[in-house]
Write a structure and sequence with these properties.
Oligomer: single chain
Largest sheet: 7 strands, mixed
Radius of gyration: 18 Å
Distance between the termini: 6 Å
Number of helices: 5
Helix content: 10-25%
Length: about 230
């Protein structure tokens, strides 16, 4: 991610209501950007004096955009490029996507599917809303091109943690908080050891927060930036 850029002293306006307000506030403060929250209709990030406005997604669009960014970062760590990607995503039902409409506290709600393309690979994602989770989880399978075997390079923004930490998301979030990451950690945390499929693909379980999406939106809104690298 483009976290090394010094934007201290810059300013942004957040127009309109968005469930990402707290997260965007936190990222802006971390980067030394003065953020003003102003009334508006559709949620947008505005760079004053430049005339640039970036839409802030919500609901289904928010989930899809976040997962797209996460899978794009994962794909860059996989060699060679995968032929197909499939993901089962558990998203916090009480978080940015809103609470479950009805049912007991441990209810699981099916959130639909999404098919898209990423760097030439077909991507199929199924969303499930889960109560009482502290982060997003994604079980991902990367299929290898015929005759190839995929390898995964674990380096920033990917982070591997000890097996004991990886067994419980509450333990994971506390571990990252103790490291000084706060509640909105930027890493894509690999839980457990990635496994190879019989045909050379890779399966892995990943934990993440909405931080990467907030970073991306701020990068897009600032002058001379086109998003995370």
């Amino acid at each position: 991610m483009s976290l090394a850029i010094d934007w201290s002293g810059d300013a942004l306006n957040l127009l309109g209501p968005t469930p990402l307000e707290r997260i965007i506030r936190g990222v802006a403060d971390h980067r030394g950007i003065a953020l003003s929250v102003l009334p508006g209709g559709t949620a947008e990030l505005e760079c004053p004096g430049v005339g640039r406005r970036i839409p802030v997604p919500s609901g289904t669009d928010l989930a899809r955009e976040l997962v797209r960014l996460v899978l794009a970062a994962l794909t860059k760590a996989v060699t060679p490029s995968p032929a197909r990607i499939e993901a089962m995503v558990l998203r916090p039902a009480g978080g940015v996507c809103g609470p479950a409409a009805a049912g007991p506290v441990d209810a699981v709600r099916l959130g639909g599917t999404w098919t898209t393309e990423l760097d030439g690979a077909e991507v199929f994602t199924r969303f499930v809303d889960v109560q009482n989770t502290r982060c997003w989880l994604a079980g991902c399978t990367f299929d290898a091109p015929e005759g190839a075997q995929l390898t995964l390079r674990i380096a920033e923004p990917l982070l591997a943690v000890d097996d004991l930490v990886a067994q419980d998301t509450a333990r994971l979030t506390q571990y990252l908080h103790d490291r000084g990451e706060g509640a909105l950690w930027p890493h894509l945390v690999v839980l457990g050891r990635p496994e190879h499929t019989r045909k050379g693909g890779i399966r892995l379980l990943l934990a993440f927060t909405e931080r990467r999406l907030a970073d991306e939106l701020i990068c897009r809104a600032m002058p001379a930036n086109g998003g995370l690298r």
